Amino acid sequence: MICATDKTDIFEGTARVREVSCHHGDAGLIEEVSASQSPVILRGFVSDWPVVDAGKSSIGDLQAYLGRFDNGAAVPVSAGPAELDGRLFYNDDFTGVNVDRGNAPFTLFLDRVFKYGPADPPPLIYLASTDVDAVLPGFRHENDIDFGSFAPLRSVWIGTRTRVAAHNDLPLNIACVAAGERRFTLFPPDQTPNLYVGPFELTPASRPISLVDFAAPDLEKYPRFEEAVRHAQIADLEPGDAIFIPSMWWHHVEATGPVNILVNYWWRTSPAHLGTPQDVLHHAMKTLRDLPPEEKAIWKHMFEHYVFDTDGSERDHIPENARGILDPITPESAARIRAFLRERLNR
Q1: How many Cα atoms within 13 Å fall on the side-chain side of residue 193?
Q2: To 5 degrees, how large is the angle CA 269–CA 44–CA 31?
Q3: Taking a C-beta distance cutoff of 8 angstroms, is the pair 195, 225 a contact?
Q4: Sign of the C-alpha dihedral, residues 261, 172, 4, 122?
Q5: For a FRET experiment, which of 107, 114, 166, 284 has its CA 20 to 30 Å from that of 223?
Q6: Burial annotation 246-270 (CB, 10 A radius, 16+ → b, else e)
Q7: How many Å separate Cα 31 from the centre of its chain?
Q8: Contacts of 285 (CB under 8 A, 6+ apart)
């Protein structure tokens, strides 16, 4: 049974994420989920992983299993007192985060994580988004997913009970629960205005986060959050389950077991030469946001015509040999554009 940390009934009646029973070896599954525009729970997706079996056997067996792959690496660790109730967030004056950060030998980190039983209020001890091969060399020989032609980034997350604020990611994401239990609360991208997103530069983990505490939402301070909840979907996952999260969907993640391990896979289906839209957003905020309203209206129309509503009419009247950037972007034209932008930005 999932033991969520909600202290409010605001999520009572929230829709559940659609789920399918499947296995990571099912033919065509990765391509199928890649095309989904909404989250999908993949029940039993990695239930055959040995790490899942070890965790179901006992906490001791799980620690011993992970210890097999320990190469003495120093790993990045976040730590905080039990009073945080697992919440990774900002400090009170938003000058930094509410946890201490440093590096520790992986063995010492594991000893601390596995020290606390289910009845203890554990401190926050967390290894986040670290390359699997760097931390657990050989682990993927026994616990992995074949992505075929895609080349995902594989990361591992290990810790005590944690609450990670709602954030979004550009890549597609399959997150696999190897041990413990997790609750994902997800929102479609159009709910951004209702999630009260924090700073862009100062972030707990490189992505802007919602400032709302999901365990105790302050609806006087964040009244639009109630509207966001109407569009939310919840996924409760146990060991062996996974969830597919589409690009830019907001997701708040609670790890509710005494020891929690997640392995996730990030990948994109669009060509790498197209670059990162987040960079465009940052540059647009610098160059467009503070223009006079009448000028912003002009550029909004330009973006609609040349970026968002393209149907060919913006270039069909130009000879093919002269269309340049108006034609579909190729690796060669992308390189020319980057060189042009570098020159402009360095002026």
Answers
A1: 2
A2: 20
A3: yes
A4: positive
A5: 284
A6: bbbbbbbbbbbbbbbbbbbbbbbee
A7: 19
A8: none
CA distance to 148, 175, 225, 265, 300, per residue, from 172 (Å)? 15, 10, 25, 8, 28
What pLDDT is attached to residue 201? 93
Q: Where are the domains of the chain?
A: 15-267, 272-345
Query: In Å, how far are 54, 141, 177, 240 from 59, measured between CA atoms?
Result: 8, 22, 15, 16
pLDDT tens digits along 100-147:
999 999 999 999 999 987 777 899 999 999 999 999 999 999 999 999
Residue pair 68/142 in contact by the 8 Å Cβ criterion? no
Q: What is the pLDDT of residues 149-174, one digit of tens each?
A: 889 999 999 999 999 999 999 999 99
Give 1's pLDDT tier (boundaries 50, 70, 90): very low
Nearest-angstrom CA–CA distance, 219 and 226: 7
Contacts of 142 (CB under 8 A, 6+ apart): 49, 50, 51
Taking each helix axis as running N to C, give the angle between helix 50-57 and helix 59-67, from 0 to 180 degrees, rounded to the nearest 10: 140
pLDDT of residue 93: 95
Determine the CATH number of domain 15-267: 2.60.120.650
Task: Report the predicted TM-score, pTM, of the whole model to 2 decimal places.
Answer: 0.94
Residue 3 pLDDT greater than 90, yes or no: no
Run of H or E residues at 167: strand 162-167
Contacts of 40 (CB under 8 A, 6+ apart): 17, 18, 19, 20, 33, 243, 244
Checking DSSP bridges between strand 87-88 and strand 162-167, what pairing results, if any? Answer: parallel
